[in-house]
Amino acid sequence: MSDSPSTVVLSGSSGYIGRYLRRYYEDRGIRVRTIGRGTASDATWSDHRGVVDVLDGSDVVVNLAGRSVSCRYNKTNADEIMTSRVQTTSQLGRALAEVHQAPTLWINASTGTIYRDSRDRPMDERSGDIGSGFSVEVARAWERELFDADAKIRKVALRMSIVLGAGGGAINPIIDLARVGLGGKMGDGGQKFSWVHVADVARVLDHLYDHPDISGPVNVATPFPVTNEELMQQVRNTLGRSHGLPTPAWLLQFGARVIRTEAELVLKSRWVDPHVLRDSGFEFRYPKLGDALADIASETPRGLLPVTLG
């Protein structure tokens, strides 16, 4: 890395990725200012002037704010998922247009789920097909708010794939399933699983800061996706479990209702290609799933892990 920011503004710092990034920056002596809903943040979303002041003089702003999508998409939850992303992005845009000394880079979370269900070819930033459905509409609105904002700074939409790392996030329920003997394929097991280690998410942000020629959508996924069946097999191998019962699609649909989430989260085939990162010379620390799972397992305690649902 050729240079580092001195001050980063981070919104959504209470989530799994946000907590990791805050530690990542602070461990390197980089000042982190936060925007959130609670008084522990340096500025709250209800205080527009406070948001402007926090942004002023910073080097980069990273917006991860948004309600968890691990829930049923009823009207109440769907409205919260949409507004929690669009409204915070809109407010950041208005505030950034008012600061005296604006950051040089605005990185806003998005999702690789913006692409269609794909088993035939990978989806990159230039030729990927945008999908349909609620999750896609959220992603489109989220990115539209970012790129239409009046703030005249470089903007990047992080189209993140499934983020894996020890201590939380998407891997905990998968580990739990394997540990109780249900770690077989989900559905037919052929759906693509694009993923990225949380450590590489942080390194991607460094890479973007170092490459002022990069703007627009950026896919954040390792170049080596696996199928769901391969994912579950590698998880079992890592945990020393020789067998795992498969879960047919109909049972996933039923179980998703019971635990108040959506089966789409595991049944949709996400095949996300990191074209921009690859072409700009980014090298993943964890390109292969086996190495990522070994790292996660080395930091994961025995027994069932906490999972936030509903």
Describe the protein in words:
The chain is an alpha/beta fold. It has a single domain (7-298), classed as 3-Layer(aba) Sandwich (Rossmann fold). Helices cover 38% and strands 15% of the residues. The protein is built from 11 helices and 11 strands. The strands form 3 sheets. A 7-stranded parallel sheet has the order 3-2-1-4-5-6-10, with helices on both faces. Strands 7-9 form a two-stranded parallel sheet. Strands 8-11 form a two-stranded antiparallel sheet. The protein starts with 6 loop residues before the first strand and ends in a 12-residue tail after the last helix. The relative contact order is 0.14. The mean pLDDT is 95.
**SS elements, strand count:** 11
Low-confidence segments? none
Alpha-carbon distance between the two ends: 40 Å
Order of helices and strands: EHEEHEHEHEEHEEHEEHHHHH
SS content category: alpha/beta
CATH-defined topology: Rossmann fold
What coarse outline follows from CA principal-axis ratios? globular
